[in-house]
């Protein structure tokens, strides 16, 4: 009787397992089938003016909110290829999309009219109203329109819900109204969108689709103007702890002051400017892995040479979208060690792109962790301990053993905390250190730290890189020496430029320079310091 009962239960269990397997197989099949059947509609904005870009990118953010549908072709005249097109090819190659088709703006409006609930008209005489229009677009599914587009949109059956022309006398008044009437309903992320000029507004409109998709609040407030900074602070106070600010200030000189300002309120930055389109699409396409791996190479025997590690860096979403300003596409990548910027937070915004970089790296490429899961100044960051715990898990996930960061001041307490709490990190690069600290490397809690002296160790052109390394070789005779060079890729230095510098210096100073990856560099520093102290 007992055996018969067990046999019946076994049959039921077997049947249940078979049903579960069949269901899971069907789900996986359906998901794969759905993803490979995606055909993206594409609008070419490569030569479009501001009013056209505002209309299309706001539409893009609305229709891509729950699924990837509408993509745009952007344009970067500094590159020999178009990154927007390259990502379409890659997505198709991976089977994440079936393909794409070029459509007109009018065709897009006709097709996606069901997603649009109306129009918000900005004031061409007061470009700050574009920020307000972006926020309204995200909250209420409104396309942003220049007055010239009103007749066309009305023909399509759309009505004006907000007309911002002549409504505000100043930037402050506009942002005060937004803070009171709109910000409470946003997702408490902020899109920092300078609209001071037509050029700025047009170039950085590439991020509107992302802001609209996430229902972020768009602001244009400067931290160096007291009245604007005070109002900006009111926004930041209402954000969630460790919230996100995406974008970039009006001037490059305001980058660090802005990061410091938001850090005091516990807000993290994701920096992006003129070349970061389609993140409402990128954020939804691609495979997310539980672990990303790269090999770790260690140097134990240190030679009497100048060790050089080139750390290629610039803005977050720009670097991901445009193949590290074109460097990654170079046929000569892999002929010289380069250590590449990577902040794990970008994986939330472009998982497929991140996978591409890990899959296509050569043995001469190495990723270092930039910042700590978002750009901050740690001495000022309100929730530093909590963020470091979060960051440590991400560093392990993406196999990032070297971390580079900056701060608002030289703070050894922060160094110790980083060394203690970021358990997966082997070594740290830090910018910038005071000129009276020599040498520029030391151990903190047994981990190597290497500092950069102000802007001296930053190079964005072939000539700047060559002159700096040549000057160092001529004026510093102690060996070994360790140079962590910030390769500023925003100036569009190329891999060919870097190879030219290497080959020329190796000819002029035979056997003097040793070109290494970031992991090799940090291990050499550690080995040398431990031997010296022993």
Please, could you describe this protein's structure?
Helices cover 41% and strands 18% of the residues. The protein is of the alpha/beta class and 534 residues long. It has 2 domains: 244 residues, no CATH class; 228 residues, TIM Barrel (Alpha-Beta Barrel). The chain is globular, with a radius of gyration of 26 Å.
Q: Kindly, what is the distance between the CA atoms of the first and last residues, rounded to a whole number of angstroms? A: 76 Å
The SS-based structural class is alpha/beta
By DSSP (H or I, 4+ residues per run), the number of helices equals 19
- Total E-strand runs: 20
How is the secondary structure organized here?
Blueprint lengths: L1 H35 L2 E6 L5 H14 L6 E4 L9 H12 L4 E4 L2 H8 L5 E4 L7 H12 L1 E4 L4 H6 L4 E4 L7 H11 L8 E3 L5 H6 L4 H6 L3 E3 L6 H12 L6 E4 L7 H9 L4 E4 L7 H4 L23 E8 L2 H6 L16 E5 L8 H10 L4 E6 L13 H14 L4 E5 L5 H10 L5 E7 L7 E4 L2 E7 L4 E2 L2 H14 L5 E8 L6 H14 L4 E3 L2 H16 L1
Parallel strand pairs: 1-2, 1-3, 4-5, 4-6, 7-8, 7-9, 9-10, 11-12, 11-19, 11-20, 12-13, 13-14, 14-15, 15-17, 18-19
Antiparallel strand pairs: 16-17
Note the main attributes of this structure:
534 residues; alpha/beta; TIM Barrel; 2 domains; globular
Give a brief description:
Helix content is 41%, strand content 18%. It is an alpha/beta fold and 534 residues long. Helix 7 (171-181) runs parallel beside helix 10.
């Amino acid at each position: 009787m007992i055996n018969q009962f067990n046999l019946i239960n076994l049959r039921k269990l077997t049947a249940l397992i078979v049903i579960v397997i069949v269901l899971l197989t069907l789900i996986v099949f359906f998901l794969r089938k759905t993803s490979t059947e995606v055909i993206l509609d594409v609008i070419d904005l490569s030569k479009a003016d501001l009013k056209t870009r505002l209309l299309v990118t706001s539409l893009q953010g609305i229709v891509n909110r729950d699924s990837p549908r509408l993509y745009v072709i952007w344009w970067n005249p500094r590159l020999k290829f178009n990154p927007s097109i390259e990502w379409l090819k890659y997505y198709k190659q991976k089977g994440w999309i079936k393909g794409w088709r070029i459509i007109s703006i009018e065709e897009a409006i006709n097709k996606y009219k069901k997603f649009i609930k109306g129009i918000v008209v900005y004031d061409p005489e007061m470009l700050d109203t574009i920020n307000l229009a972006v926020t309204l677009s995200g909250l209420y599914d409104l396309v942003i329109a220049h007055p010239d587009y009103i007749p066309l949109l009305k023909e399509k059956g759309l009505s004006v819900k907000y007309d911002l022309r002549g409504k505000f006398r100043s930037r402050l008044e506009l942002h005060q109204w937004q803070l009171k009437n709109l910000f409470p309903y946003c997702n408490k992320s902020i899109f920092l969108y300078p609209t001071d000029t037509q050029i700025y507004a047009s170039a950085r409109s590439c991020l509107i689709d992302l802001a609209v998709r996430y229902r972020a609040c768009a602001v244009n407030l400067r931290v160096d103007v007291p009245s604007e900074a005070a109002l900006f602070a009111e926004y930041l106070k209402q954000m969630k702890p460790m919230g996100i600010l995406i974008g970039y200030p009006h001037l490059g000189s305001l980058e660090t002051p802005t990061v410091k300002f938001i850090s005091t309120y516990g807000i993290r930055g994701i920096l992006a400017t003129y070349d970061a389109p389609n993140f409402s699409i990128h954020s939804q396409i691609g495979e997310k892995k539980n672990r990303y791996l790269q090999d770790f190479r260690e140097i134990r025997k240190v030679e009497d040479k100048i060790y050089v590690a080139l750390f290629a860096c610039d803005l977050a979403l720009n670097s991901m979208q445009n193949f590290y300003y074109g460097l990654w596409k170079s046929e000569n990548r892999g002929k010289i060690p380069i250590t590449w910027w990577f902040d794990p937070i970008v994986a939330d915004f472009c998982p497929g792109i991140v996978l591409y970089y890990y899959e296509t790296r050569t043995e001469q490429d190495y990723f270092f962790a930039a910042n700590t899961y978002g750009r901050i100044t740690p001495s000022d960051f309100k929730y530093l301990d909590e963020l470091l715990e979060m960051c440590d898990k991400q560093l392990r996930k993406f196999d990032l053993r070297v971390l580079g960061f900056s701060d608002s001041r030289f703070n050894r307490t922060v160094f110790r905390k980083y060394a203690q709490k970021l358990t997966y990190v082997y070594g740290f690069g830090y910018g910038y250190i005071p000129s009276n600290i020599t040498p520029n490397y030391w151990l903190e809690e047994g981990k190597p730290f290497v500092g950069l002296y102000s802007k001296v160790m930053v190079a964005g052109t072939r000539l700047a890189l060559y002159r700096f390394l040549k000057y160092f070789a001529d004026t510093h005779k102690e060996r070994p020496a360790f140079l962590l060079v910030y390769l500023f890729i925003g100036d569009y230095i190329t891999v060919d430029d870097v190879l030219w510098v290497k080959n020329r210096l190796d000819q002029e100073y035979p056997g003097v320079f040793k070109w290494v990856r970031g992991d090799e560099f940090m291990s050499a520093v550690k080995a040398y310091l431990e031997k010296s102290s022993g």
